[in-house]
Amino acid sequence: MNQPRRYFKELRFRQLRALVMLARKGTFSAVAEAFQISVPSVWQQIRALEDEFGTAMVRQSGKSIVLTEQGELLVQLAQPLVDSFDHIRELFAEKNRRLPRRITVATTASLLLHELQAPLAILRERHPDIELTFIDRPSTIARRHLENGDADVAIIGQIGEKPSPQLAVTQLTAYPFVLVCPEGHPLIKARSVKLADLIKHPLVMPGEGSNSRRHAQQVFEAAGLWQKARLALTASTLHIVAGYVRVGFGIGVTSVSPMILKEAARRHPSYRGIVFRDLSRLFGREEVVIAHRHTKIELPHHRTFREIVLGSLRSG
Known about the structure:
Blueprint: H1 13-25, H2 28-35, H3 39-53, E1 58-61, E2 64-67, H4 69-95, E3 101-107, H5 109-113, H6 117-126, E4 130-136, H7 139-147, E5 153-158, E6 167-182, H8 186-189, H9 195-198, E7 203-206, H10 211-222, E8 231-235, H11 238-246, E9 251-255, H12 258-265, E10 274-278, H13 280-283, E11 285-293, H14 300-315
Parallel strand pairs: 3-4, 3-5, 7-8, 7-9
Antiparallel strand pairs: 1-2, 5-11, 6-9, 6-10, 6-11
């Protein structure tokens, strides 16, 4: 005998959507604000999921709410469904030519100034109707914007990050770590450079929110040298790092776009009086990737944008 349908207890899409949003936002109040519903309503949706599956999906950790192992598994399974469903209206509107084609891209200032200029020019020429909005942030924050659903695509640097199951990631290029010195500095003429040689000089470093700063500091810490380092200045861009190195504040250690290194080799005015020396042997390279969330339905203009960026940077 068939069991009657449980209309009020059966699994519903809005419950899965609430759990996926909770994984992104981290609090019930943030989910309630995103959906414009009450916090108790969010609780009810999560509790309904737990009743349906017979297991806890969330737990309290201090003042925070975290997913259980079962909750993380369900989010991983539900994420493509939720993202696909959320895109259906946009996909229909695009096919029906009812809405402008928009893309929000989270990326860094360096990539906007250098690597992305060529592909964006191609996009503007071939698809002038596509509207672009950029979120200019350090890579770690730009990645968070993508994971939280605030951006459609992220073009970012990463060093040793564990791939997120909710993101599809493709490598574009790589930024080598370099030493930034004024001309005539003894480290430029040295036969080889060691970590211990670097910390003998004041350091001009990228800001704490950047991959370059985090990774360089980790390398120094692993060698037991960071406590001996003298941090003279932190800066948000390479232009600022180079400017203060030029006037004698110290030496810089950071990842640098290959396009900048080519400009410097051609004696570009921005880098006069500055010399770059490769430190990849000590610090490695920062991979630059393009990432988007896994979905079963990808909007055609999102795919067009990614393909133009991939084609331009991989052939460049």
